[in-house]
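Data availability (excerpt). The following record was deposited with the supplementary files.
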Amino acid sequence: MKHSIFFIVLLSICFCCTESVKTSSNQSENTSADTSENDMQTKAEFAIIIHGGAGTILKKNMTPEKELAYKAKLEEAIRVGYEILKNGGTSLDAVQKTINVMEDSPLFNAGKGAVFTNAETNELDASIMDGKTLNAGASAGTITVRNPINLARIIMDKSPHVMMAGVGADTYAKEQGLSIVEPSYFYTEHRFNALKRAMEREQIELDHDDKQAFYDPEIKDSKFGTVGCAALDKNGNLAAGTSTGGMTNKRYGRVGDAPIIGAGTYANNNSCAVSSTGWGEYFIRSMVAHDISALMQYKGLTLQEAAREVIHTKVPALGGDGGIVAVDKNGIMVAEFNTAGMYRATMNDKGELTIGIYKE
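Predicted structure:
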């Protein structure tokens, strides 16, 4: 009798445990399904974000006319990429064509508006990256390529290399049929005057050994200024690109972060696409663009959390400043900077446009 009772109790316990496991399993499956559905609801069909450089950009120093000019050009540029994405085009094409608009404008330190070196020349850098394949292309120190981002794209698509520089890069661009211009095309009076002012301040530093002059906001801002774009297309592919005229009064073939994959530009479909604008030496040492992606992949941070960690903690700890624009695989967009301002704009799949200049 005792054995019979024991057997019945044992069967009851087993039955209850089985039902508990099934219930727990079903709850887990339901939670997973709910999460998946939520992800689908929050995932944007496509998205695009741009920047036109960061720095000591203060409203008190900006005329209403100049502010309107910057906003108009930012809107013109981002709408080009938006239309490409809206019509099913690739994120790579959207990034490239959007940057073209800013390269052709004298307002930005890229292409037509490139700053001058100490030798009174213009040396341009650019890079682009495909988040799907992790393929990338970059050029550095070109002097005749009208749109350096186009050269970066050609290097990525048609050459076995990632980066070309100097005379060789100019030669390859010509061979590939890209738009080639005389170096004088890049001359703009306000950039040339900026060089003269930088050279005068430098001489004052040498004559008086006054290192405090180094912290003049205009001198700091002469060290960076770029344009860039990050985008997500309808196929779920990310891309990023960056283009720059480099540093005012630079010497010795200096190259900043803009053409360095992982520093100025990075894209990975598993995380995000990033374009940087900042003091290049520090962005190279911090590998800013890749670090943001890595924090997302390896530590599970959101794009916002990763960008804040890098831009507000890691870069300043080294003494650098600047900012980034980025978009993640779900279409979440972030513009993060530790300077007084950054020219920037976003457009989502609903056609909503935002434009910013100052820290808000």
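Summary of structural features: Residues 40 and 330 are 9 Å apart (CA to CA).
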